[in-house]
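User: Reviewer 2 asked us to show a designed sequence for the structure in our supplementary figure. I'm pasting the structure tokens here. Could you produce the per-position amino acids so we can include them in the response letter?
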């Protein structure tokens, strides 16, 4: 037992602070297209119930350097920046009851490249690591390199060509089967017709031979 000694009290206080640490979860790396909207997702876990004391702070560090900039703040109600690059471009998209502290960033620009930090405090849970998202803003669809569009067109062209070739092959097989069956039926019909024509001729020849034999017998 520690009793009431100062070192034991300090250890208990330190243990309570370590146990009461907010944990932040983010995507860490994110890529989005210039001119579009993006959701900066930030969720958290806390041992303490979420209440009116919860605060969420978003800040931004430009990739090319410079001072940290304020992005967004939440405490009971959302507070958007009144000036700066993020004015009228950031809205609250979180839900504290679901431990969600996400925001939406509208109309991305290339100078939005950088690191966005999400810090959540839920007293008595006030310590913990700050979540980070490294955002990369890429070119729009119409401004992408030509080789990317060419590659996509090539893939679509190849797929269409493969499907067309397969369909053409199937049609050719069907036509070949139909033609073979047609010629077989035609040969069978011609053979049957020849047999029918040969029967009267054969009968006529046999009758003629019989008449000759009868005549010869009468003359004898």
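Assistant: Here is a per-position design you can include in the supplement:
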């Amino acid at each position: 037992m520690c009793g009431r000694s100062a070192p034991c009290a300090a250890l208990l206080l330190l243990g309570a602070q370590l146990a009461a640490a907010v944990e932040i979860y983010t995507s860490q790396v994110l890529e989005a297209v210039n001119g579009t909207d993006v959701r900066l997702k930030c969720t958290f876990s806390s041992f303490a119930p979420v209440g009116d004391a919860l605060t969420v702070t978003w800040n931004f560090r430009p990739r090319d350097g410079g001072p940290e900039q304020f992005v967004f703040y939440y405490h009971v109600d959302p507070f958007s920046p009144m000036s700066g690059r993020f004015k009228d471009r950031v809205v609250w998209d979180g839900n504290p009851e679901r431990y969600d502290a996400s925001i939406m960033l509208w109309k991305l620009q290339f100078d939005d490249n950088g690191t966005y930090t999400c810090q959540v405090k839920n007293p008595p849970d006030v310590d913990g690591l700050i979540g980070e998202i490294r955002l990369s803003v890429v070119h729009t669809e119409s401004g992408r390199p030509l080789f990317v569009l060419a590659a996509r067109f090539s893939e679509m062209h190849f797929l269409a060509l493969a499907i067309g070739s397969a369909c053409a092959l199937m049609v050719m097989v069907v036509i070949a089967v139909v033609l073979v069956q047609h010629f077989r039926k035609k040969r069978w019909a011609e053979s049957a017709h020849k047999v029918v024509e040969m029967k009267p001729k054969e009968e006529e020849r046999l009758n003629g031979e019989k008449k000759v034999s009868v005549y010869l017998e009468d003359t004898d």
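For the response letter, you might also mention the following. The mean pLDDT is 80. Residues 146-219 form the longest helix (74 residues).
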